[in-house]
Structures are given as C-alpha cells and as structure tokens.
Structure to design on (316 residues):
C-alpha cells in the first residue's frame, strides 16, 4: 500500500543534493546484474541468458546460467547454475550467496547457491511457489541480524494483482527462507512494480523498483517503509531517466563496429534493473537501458557517497 504523499510533497524542504553520474555502456544483451565486492575486488554477478532471452555475443545457448565477471577486465570468473535465470547475490563472512530462478525465467522454484571460492557451489531449494506464480528478479538486504529478500512475481495467482508485484521473504542464514504473508506484505498489486533493489538503513527499508509509464516507457522509482506493508514514495522521483548518456561507451575497444552501431542507433525508452554496492568511497551502480523488446544494454553509473546517503537523499 502506498501512503498518500501529497501533503508531504506540498510542505517538503529538500536541499540541492548530489546526483548520480552516468558513465556509459559496458555490455550488450546483459541485464539483471548485481555489483559486489569480493575479497576487496569489485566484481559483478550476471545472468548469462539463453537463446529465448537473447544470448549475448551471438552464442547459441540452450540453457541459461550464472557467472561472476571482473569489472576491471570484464573477464568471466566461471559459469555455474545451469538452467537458471534472473538472480541476485549477497556476500558475508567469506561466502557468496546467489539466489535465482530455476529454469529459463518465470518458473516457480527459487534456488540458493553458496560458495567460498566462486568455483564450487552448493545448491539448495529456498522456496517452492504455486504453479500459477512466476518468479523473476530478487534482491537481498540485512536487517538487524536477519535477512529480507524482495521477490518480483507475475502469473495469475491472486498475490500478483497487476503484474508485476514485489513480495518478501525472511531468513536467519541466507539459505532457509520463509515467505512473509504475501497478501499483507507486498508492493504493489494495483500496478506494474518490478525489478526490486532493497536496502535497510535506520529503521527503514528502501526499495528501488521499476514503474511502467505511458507510451512504452519504464523508469525506476524509490519508496521506503518501516514494515513492508505501508510505503512512502520518495519526494524526488524517478531516480533516473533514460537519456543519451546511456549510450556513451566506456571501452569502445571492447566492442565490434557492428555492436557500436547497435548501441548508437537503438531505441532507448527504459532505465531498469538498478542495483548497487559501495566500493572505494563511491556507490557503484549498474542498470539496463534499451527498448524492452530485446535490444538491451548494461550500463554503469556512480554516486559520490554511500548507499545509505544515496537512498536517504530522495526523502530528506
């Protein structure tokens, strides 16, 4: 449920704030990625998509999987979790936890993978949903000794309402997960709300998610909540907007002439799949841009401050 913010908006006083800086495109046909710091190195979790979702690099791939990528060199650190889609990662105490959807996307089983070296992975089933629930993007944050996962769902089940909707689960160990009451704890069944990125600071859950705008447009908004039942819309929204800066290319030497032409001439009506981590004094941001019809690109941005400062800046 979204709290009426009109009075807050009329009376709000928000100073000039720092804003994120878009740096440019880093990859083609790659979305739903998570930046993360692993052993003091910045890497990125990726869903390696299969043919039906538009496999990257012209590779024929029957089944999707996951990989981590060195964000300095863009080299893969190895593939794992064959026949899985979407997904996110979270690291703590020398272990990497990956949560993702079994199958090619839109399945009803959420799996967990755990590794201490990014080479050997232990797989377990986290949550099995009814067959009329479809699972997509996920995001995890730590909350006072426990963990909360935001899960994007679609399908015909009543918990969805208007696809897509974000529901929530909790865990004590990042492996065993329990759904919160899906009818009571959700955002939001009245309209398209997808691609969650969830964080927790000073008693508030902050969630960046994707709104569908008129005339085939998608833009990320931010809300916050104390209880995951009633949500407050940020006074400054959307948090970013598609523009020509998305098409800047950070390392043009890593692309072919044909790929550079595709970046330059593709329709851009979308900024989505926002995720972030803190590294070397800045918040590193990855997001997707494109046409939401299969021509999709991964881009990089940064914020000169912490994730907490970034989230709070839209409200205070």
């Amino acid at each position: 449920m979204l709290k009426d913010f009109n009075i807050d908006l009329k009376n709000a006083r928000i100073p000039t704030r720092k804003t994120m800086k878009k740096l440019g495109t880093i990859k083609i046909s790659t979305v739903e990625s998570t930046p993360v710091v692993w052993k003091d190195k910045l890497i990125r979790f990726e869903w390696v998509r299969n043919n039906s979702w538009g496999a990257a690099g012209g590779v024929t791939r029957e089944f999707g999987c996951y990989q981590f990528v060195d964000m300095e060199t863009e080299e893969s650190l190895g593939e794992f979790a064959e026949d899985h889609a979407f997904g996110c990662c979270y690291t703590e105490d020398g272990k990497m936890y990956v949560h993702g959807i079994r199958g090619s996307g839109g399945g009803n089983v959420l799996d967990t993978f755990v590794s201490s070296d990014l080479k050997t992975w232990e797989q377990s089933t986290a949550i099995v949903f009814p067959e009329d629930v479809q699972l997509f993007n996920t995001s995890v944050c730590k909350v006072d000794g426990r963990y909360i996962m935001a899960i994007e769902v679609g399908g015909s089940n009543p918990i969805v309402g208007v696809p897509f909707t974000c529901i929530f689960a909790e865990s004590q160990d990042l492996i065993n997960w329990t759904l919160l009451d899906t009818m009571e704890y959700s955002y939001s069944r009245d309209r398209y709300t997808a691609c969650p990125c969830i964080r927790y600071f000073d008693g508030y859950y902050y969630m960046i998610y994707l709104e569908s705008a008129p005339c085939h447009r998608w833009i990320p908004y931010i809300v916050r909540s104390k209880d995951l039942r009633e949500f407050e819309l940020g006074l400054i929204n959307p948090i970013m907007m598609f523009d020509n800066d998305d098409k800047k290319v950070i390392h043009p030497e890593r692309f072919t002439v044909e790929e550079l032409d595709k970046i330059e001439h593709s329709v851009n009506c979308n900024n989505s799949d926002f995720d972030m981590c803190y590294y070397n004094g800045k918040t590193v941001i990855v997001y997707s841009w494109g046409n939401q019809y299969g021509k999709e690109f991964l881009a990089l941005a940064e914020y000169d401050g912490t994730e907490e400062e970034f989230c709070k800046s839209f409200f205070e």
The chain is about 5% helix and 50% strand. The first strand starts at residue 21 and ends at 28. Residues 206 and 224 are 4 Å apart (CA to CA). The longest helix spans residues 257-265.
